[in-house]
Amino acid sequence: MESGFSRHRSFGAASVAFIGFFLVSLSLAHAQIAELPTVAPEKVGLDSGQLGKIDGLVSGWIASHKLAGATVAVARHGKVAYFKAFGQRDREASLPMTEDTIFRIYSMSKAFTSAAVLMLMEEGKIGLEDPVSKYIPEFKGIQVSGPDGTHPARREPTVHDLLHHTAGLGYGWGTTAIDKAYGQAKILNRDIDIQTMCASLGRIPLNYEPGTAWQYSVGIDVLGRIVEVASGLTFDVFLEKRIFHPLDLKDTGFFVPAEKVNRFAALYHYDEKGGLTLQDAPGTSEYLKKPRFLSGGGGLVSTTRDYLRFLSLIHNHGKLGGVQLLKPATVELMTHNDLPASILPIGLFGKLHHGFGFGLGFNVRVEHSDKWDPASPVGEWGWAGIASTHYWASPKDDLIVVTMEQTMPFNFNLETGLKGVIYSAIQGK
Q1: How far is 130 from 136, CA to CA, in rounded Å?
Q2: Tens digit of pLDDT for each residue in 235-269?
Q3: Which fold, 41-110+240-424?
Q4: Which residues pair with 393 in a beta bridge?
Q5: CATH 3.30.300 is held by the domain 124-231
Q6: Kind of pairing between the strands at 79-90 and 276-280
Q7: Which one of 154, 163, 176, 312 has the fewest beta carbons within 10 angstroms of its own beta carbon?
Q8: 3-state secondary structure of 134
Q9: Tens-digit pLDDT profile for residues 108-140
């Protein structure tokens, strides 16, 4: 950032320079803490009656015990038009859901990691086509699994591959030999540091040749280690210093501090028989202690407010208030499909997401499809977390939506159930 002294050098007087520096610093500080303005829906071209239907839908899911509580936030033209909390964040303690409830956001962490990598790319510290082995030596000479055993990869996976899940990595969720190797190496173990995990991962064969398929994977966690190597900072320090603090994301991090536990939501399991069972209590959760493994793929907690601020930065071409973290051209890479037609459609949990591609951070609607999420307009980007948290943004409509709950197994209720209602609320520009 250009200092006040260089800005005002032409005035000559040191006192004038100091005043200029002070005013610039004060302005930036104010920009960092300013909240997104809240307005009536009609002020931003949304119908309040239509948005009011959200209340009944979410309350109905709570009444049928599909979730304990939720928050829903809708922003348009950079202003919050709807933000409500429903139900309970902790049924056992009879604590209501609130707008400042802290959630386990799991894979919604990935967008922060992608942004961190691309910030370092802009600074020339990371290259998209750099082989992963440049930062993690154990990936040098990595093997690929095939029907006749393993063989050397035709090319090494790159940072680019990691960003859009085409590196040949997986999650180890299946029953193959590679999946078992992930388990034996304790990939994603909360008590193993990120450097050790990545070193172990580099010794396990890839599932396919890099660049030839799309498979949701631990690749974003590997990127967290690459951020450490390229920046010289631990991953948590980098995120706090370069993203969380500048954007005033005051409740986002890898654990919940003791003074905030009273705002931390309980995690529930839905058994599809009409019952919710406590899976992780706020007062005894592993999230109360900083983990050794700083998972950029799924380790963060956050609030609806914080995440909406981050998405607003991306939606506004890398800028929020007076803070510019990414260049518009870089945001274009994040929010536009980067996959060839031969790889589409992408799939998750055994289901193909027809009409969606993937950019360097988000899934992206590339064409309309009645087979999957028909309410989504072309150009919409977003993702979700495994505890059924969701977000999406439509550049065409200048719209951002964040929904939060804490329910496993993962479900699409708050996304597919509300999208049609929210898009139907749009009245004009």
Answers
A1: 11
A2: 999 999 999 999 999 999 999 999 999 999 999 99
A3: Beta-lactamase (3.40.710)
A4: 381, 400
A5: no
A6: unpaired
A7: 154
A8: helix
A9: 999 999 999 999 999 999 999 999 999 999 999
